[in-house]
Amino acid sequence: MSRYKQLSDAYAVNTQALIVYRQEARDALTKIRDAVRKHLGLIVVDTDIVRIVSENGSNVFSTLAVLEHGESVHFELVVSLGGDGGLPKSDIAIPAVIGKKSNHINLSIPGINFEIVLDSDDRYQAVAESVFEAILSRLEKF
What we know:
The chain is of the alpha+beta class. The chain has one domain. The protein contains three helices and five strands; from the N terminus they run αβαββββα. The protein is elongated, with a radius of gyration of 18 Å. The termini are far apart.
């Protein structure tokens, strides 16, 4: 085997693993958003009440297209409140980080010291409960 062929084979394996990582991250972000929606009792899937955005406010899913091995995705889980009964609209954002450790997708929410391996639906429900509790705790402090 030529050295170039060896490099080409390694590149193919690396690229395939990267595609899988990006897909896993996208699936995890979608499941997080859907779990929070479900936990809040939001039935309408296309609602913007629960959003996942990058730290600068742009679409976090576009950052996945350039995600590399060893990198994490920093994002905010945003829940929009108000607008009903004359209340002003407001967004509550929970900063979080998703990445891969030991072949598993992990979620970390530094503000509430929460870290979890996202390997089952129960884990996504735990994320939704933690996000709900963090937002409720913020709102109850005045």
